[in-house]
Write a structure and sequence with these properties.
By secondary structure, the protein is mostly helical. It is built from four helices and no strands. The radius of gyration is 13 Å and the shape is elongated.
Length: 91
């Protein structure tokens, strides 16, 4: 499979909306593992996954992404919306 990015589009959106550098960094910490989770899920669904990669691997990355959402930087509404986005990747 290819490489999927979630980080880039999130950072671009935040910048266009006037978000601070801290918001951009927070979204990067969320987007990197979520993009990897999406890639691994896609590989699993296409039977192209590397040995040892399971739905548990995907879900652990989703949990890592959700855990990176910082309530000191992001609004509760943003965290909820991003959490819902992450849940769509979980298996």
């Amino acid at each position: 499979g290819g490489t999927y990015t979630v980080e880039g589009p999130l950072r671009i959106g935040a910048a266009l909306a006037g978000g601070s550098a801290a918001v951009g960094e927070s979204l990067s910490r969320f987007g990197r593992p979520l993009g990897e989770a999406f890639q691994l899920r896609d590989d699993l669904e296409d039977d192209e996954a590397t040995a040892g990669v399971t739905s548990g691997t995907v879900n652990a990355l989703v949990d890592e992404a959700k855990g990176a959402l910082d309530p000191a930087i992001l609004t509760a509404e943003s965290i909820q919306a991003l959490g819902r986005l992450a849940d769509t990747v979980a298996m």
